[in-house]
Design brief:
141 residues; three-stranded antiparallel sheet; 2 helices; four-stranded antiparallel sheet; Aldehyde Oxidoreductase, domain 3
Length: 141
């Protein structure tokens, strides 16, 4: 079982409807630091899977060596469905294949604090390779 997915028993509807041209209408979110001094900001909009978030968290924690603090601002709450291969048309909607978080351009995904700038840059750079969207390292002055 994936760590980053909601409890299905608490949801009213298991499967969401997909909106057409979803990424075109995502507004740019403002740049807000909540807790840390260094952050990873999304440069493009798109979907981030729960497994990608977990891979980023593991790579950041491994690089920080138990020093510093990490905040994750994304939680996959939207299910994506897919039908199996060699299945004919019709017969209803497919099963849930993965949980995703719809990211808006300019949104902060991860924040780090209590470590030097160089270490924060390299840890967030490693995490950005795990994501399917373009990201940028930013920091407070």
């Amino acid at each position: 079982m994936n760590k980053y997915q909601p409890n299905i028993s608490n949801l009213k509807f298991k499967k969401f409807r997909k909106k057409k041209n979803y990424h075109k209408f995502l507004k740019i979110k403002e740049l807000n630091f909540f807790f840390g001094r260094y952050a990873l900001r999304a440069e493009t909009s798109g979907f981030v899977e729960g497994l990608q978030i977990e891979a980023c968290r593991k790579s950041i924690v491994r690089h920080l060596e138990r020093k510093g603090r990490l905040w994750i601002h994304c939680w996959p709450y939207k299910p994506l469905t897919s039908k199996g291969s060699n299945v004919r048309m019709g017969k209803g909607k497919g099963n849930i294949s993965k949980w995703v978080y719809p990211v808006k351009k300019g949104e902060i995904l991860f924040e780090i604090d209590d470590i030097p700038l160089r270490k924060a840059f390299f840890s967030l750079k490693k995490a950005s390779f795990k994501l399917s969207i373009k990201t940028k390292f930013i920091f407070k002055k």
